[in-house]
Amino acid sequence: MKERAAPEYWVLDGLEDTPQGCWARLERADGKMIVLPVSVLPDHTREGDVLQVLAGPDGDVLRPAPEETARRREAAQERLSALNGPTPTGDIDL
């Protein structure tokens, strides 16, 4: 039985309007940035969305990954809430 590789995900970091057109900055899991024309993004993609990279017959294809987007946003909110938790009381020793 053939082993399946873990899915590859890219995050839409930002959109840039330039004289050459609108471009999308995508961050890979290894932290490298890729810049692609906005036309290759799925419709209704917005900054912060996670896209799954799939191999297609004509090259890689980006597909929305709403479950992964929701999971990552929830984890980020939990980290933020922990950082913004209650202020410690009492004396602080330095």
Textual characterization of the structure:
The protein has one helix at 66-83, and strands spanning 8-18, 21-27, 33-37, 50-56, 59-64. The chain has one domain (8-80): OB fold (Dihydrolipoamide Acetyltransferase, E2P). The termini are far apart. A hairpin with a 5-residue loop joins strand 2 and strand 3 (33-37). It contains 1 helix and 5 strands; from the N terminus they run βββββα. By secondary structure, the protein is an alpha+beta fold. Strands 3-2-1-4-5 form a 5-stranded antiparallel beta sheet. The protein is elongated and about 65 Å long. Residues 65-77 have a biased composition (Basic and acidic residues).
Short description:
It holds the Pfam family DUF3006. The protein contains one helix and five strands. It has 94 residues and is of the alpha+beta class.
Write the layout of secondary structure elements.
Elements: E1 8-18, E2 21-27, E3 33-37, E4 50-56, E5 59-64, H1 66-83
Antiparallel strand pairs: 1-2, 1-4, 2-3, 4-5
Q: Tags for this entry?
A:
94 residues, alpha+beta, OB fold (Dihydrolipoamide Acetyltransferase, E2P), 5-stranded antiparallel β-sheet, 19% helix, DUF3006, DUF3006 domain-containing protein
Mean pLDDT: 90
The main sheet orders its strands as 3-2-1-4-5
Radius of gyration: 19 Å
Uncertain regions spanning at least 5 consecutive residues: none
Number of strands: 5
Shape: elongated
The biggest sheet, with number of strands, parallel, antiparallel or mixed sense and barrel status, is: 5 strands, antiparallel
Going by helix content, strand content and strand pairing, the class is: alpha+beta
Distance between the termini: 58 Å
Number of helices: 1
Organism: Deinococcus cavernae
InterPro entries: DUF3006
Protein name: DUF3006 domain-containing protein
